[in-house]
Write a structure and sequence with these properties.
By secondary structure, the chain is mainly beta. It has 3 domains: about 25-135, Histone H3 K4-specific methyltransferase SET7/9 N-terminal domain (Single Sheet), CATH 2.20.110; about 150-320, Jelly Rolls (Sandwich), CATH 2.60.120; about 335-494, Thrombin, subunit H (Beta Barrel). The protein has helices at about 135-145, 355, 425-430; strands spanning about 1-10, 25, 40-45, 55-60, 65-70, 80-90, 95-100, 110-115, 120-130, 130-135, 150-155, 165, 170-175, 180-185, 190-195, 200-210, 220-230, 230-240, 240-250, 250-260, 270-275, 280-285, 285-290, 300-305, 310-320, 335-345, 350, 360-365, 370-380, 385-390, 405, 415-420, 435-445, 455, 470, 475-485, 490-494. It has a 9-stranded antiparallel β-sheet, with no helix packed on it. Strands 11, 12, 13, 14, 16, 21, 22, 23 and 25 form a 9-stranded antiparallel β-sheet that branches. It has a 6-stranded mixed beta barrel with strand order 1-26-27-30-29-28. The radius of gyration is 28 Å and the shape is flat.
Length: about 500
């Protein structure tokens, strides 16, 4: 039995440096002090309680470039700065560029990470007194490092044993680094090879060369999960339209039928299929044009196809599989229950209800804001209080933002405002977008005067179990876990 959890993930940005009235300095692109007319950055200094000099630097467009403190500030620029504590640098588009922690001597001491301007993590290391150290996470990552199975055919020869032939009706020829299929009838032609999939995580990519002067076929693309012409899946384009679907026992099921796309080029085109644990993305020239449920291949062949009269040339076919990831697929049909939850740190620890995961053999955590799903494990549970601590164990998980909500340890007053964010009826029509519900604290005790519970008027639905209960300051004050069915709008939170 598989359980799937949609996990609340809200991200806000906080400035770490308090502003005060200070002299504004100007620095050039090399971070050297300069005149205003040559400036690339501005710098404003403030002093913190420990006597360090804290400052922020901004691009001329006003966006933040740096925030942090130094024990020694270079009066001529940044080159001689001795940084201390947590410091951050940002790209011009506002994305985090570098985060680092320094000791009092200005040596790296803690986390150091670098990111692209699109938010992709490029490097992550732990330091102690200026020396990189191997952390338990590093060791775990090494133990669980991705094992890739890669197949690439650039059609330089026929080493993969394509069924090549020439006849009056059709032909399949490898020549000049291209696989050329030609059909002289309206039936079209296809060729395939054996390449069994071993993983639920795969990427298929087919590069179709630009049309030649010879009559180009109107339709061309990929056939995969292929057994015979009565059992296969397909992804092809026809002029500026694309189609996606499958055939099983001769019966066709269309997922996308001749949908138009501005991403189809009049020249070369790349068709890609990216299959993940919770979804399958179809791309044309690196742009997602369609999303579907995960694919579980049943058959062991893959190939290319031309529809109708004409020719098409195929430049490269590649398949990449991640063999380190679990082989199981997560589909709506395989999910036996859903709930909500919330992250408590950036290491992937989260809280939900015990009753949500009680009968689960496997647990998956869905982060809708990241459009990603990860496998998790139970760390510890409290059946009496209906709480469970989970940890995301998927090696692909990376979360570099701050957890923006706080936690309150004070008792809320009766009548205080409260609200929750969660994922009710995810698979029953309400969808995967987070749902807001609000009300008030109606009692400091729960059912049968249970002192570990709040009673609230927040309307709760199936699937809300595990949602955080917030006060008016957006602090977590409880975890939603039950409703009283014999009365309207009576719910409970731990």
């Amino acid at each position: 039995m598989i359980k799937n959890f949609s996990i609340l993930l809200s991200i806000l940005c906080f400035s770490l440096v308090a502003k005060s009235q200070a002299t504004e300095e100007y620095l050039d692109i090399q971070e050297q002090i300069t005149e205003k007319k040559f400036a690339y950055f501005t710098r404003i200094r403030t002093a913190d309680s420990l006597g360090y000099t804290c400052f922020e630097m901004r691009y001329l467009n006003g966006k933040l470039y740096f925030e942090g403190c130094v024990s020694k500030l270079d009066s001529k620029g940044s080159k001689g700065n001795v940084y201390v504590g947590a410091c951050r640098w940002y790209h011009r588009n506002g994305q985090l560029k570098t985060t680092a922690v320094f000791n009092a001597e200005g040596k790296l001491h803690g986390l150091f990470a670098e990111y692209s301007d699109e938010g992709t993590e490029l490097k992550r290391s732990e330091y102690k007194d200026g020396t990189a150290i191997a952390t338990e996470d590093d060791k775990l990552a090494e133990d669980k490092k991705e094992v890739k199975h890669t197949y690439v055919d650039a059609f330089d020869d026929n080493k993969n044993d394509w069924d090549l032939f020439v006849s009056e009706k059709h032909s399949a020829v490898i020549e000049g680094g291209l696989l050329t299929l030609t059909s002289n009838t309206d039936m079209g032609v296809g060729r395939y090879i054996k390449n069994p999939m071993q993983s639920a995580f795969f990427e298929i990519e087919l590069t179709i060369a630009a049309p030649t002067k010879k009559k180009a076929a109107a339709a061309k693309g990929i056939i995969y999960d292929f057994k015979d012409w009565s059992n296969y899946r397909y992804f092809f384009f026809y002029f500026y339209y694309f189609s996606i679907g499958l055939v099983r026992k001769g019966q066709q099921k269309k997922l996308a039928d001749l949908l138009s796309s501005v991403h189809i080029s009049a020249n070369a085109n790349v068709l890609s299929i990216h299959n993940k644990i919770d979804r399958c993305n179809f791309l044309i020239n690196n742009k997602v044009v369609f999303r579907a449920k995960s694919i579980q291949p049943e058959f062991d062949k893959i190939g290319v196809v031309v529809g109708g009269k004409g020719s098409a040339q195929f430049d490269k076919l590649s398949i990449i599989e991640d063999l380190s990831r679990p082989a199981a697929f997560l589909t709506d049909e395989s999910v036996k229950g859903t709930g909500s939850g919330f992250l408590i740190n950036t290491s992937g620890y989260l809280i939900t209800n015990y009753h949500v995961i009680e009968k689960a053999n496997r647990i998956f955590v869905e982060l809708p804001e990241l459009n990603a799903t990860f496998e998790a494990k139970e760390v510890i549970s409290d059946k009496t209080n209906d709480l469970a601590l989970l940890q995301i164990v998927d090696t692909a998980f990376r979360f570099t933002e701050e957890i923006v909500y706080g936690f309150s340890t004070k008792m809320e007053d009766v009548g205080a405002e409260a609200f929750t964010l969660g994922y009710p009826f995810v698979l029953s029509g309400l969808g995967r977008e987070v749902k807001f519900a609000d009300g008030k604290i109606s009692s400091r005790t729960g059912y049968d005067n249970e002192v570990a519970l709040y009673q609230t008027t927040v309307p709760i639905q199936p699937g809300n179990s595990g949602s955080p209960l917030f006060n008016s300051k957006a602090e977590v004050v409880g975890c939603v876990n039950a409703i009283f069915r014999n009365a309207d709008n009576v719910s409970y939170a731990i």
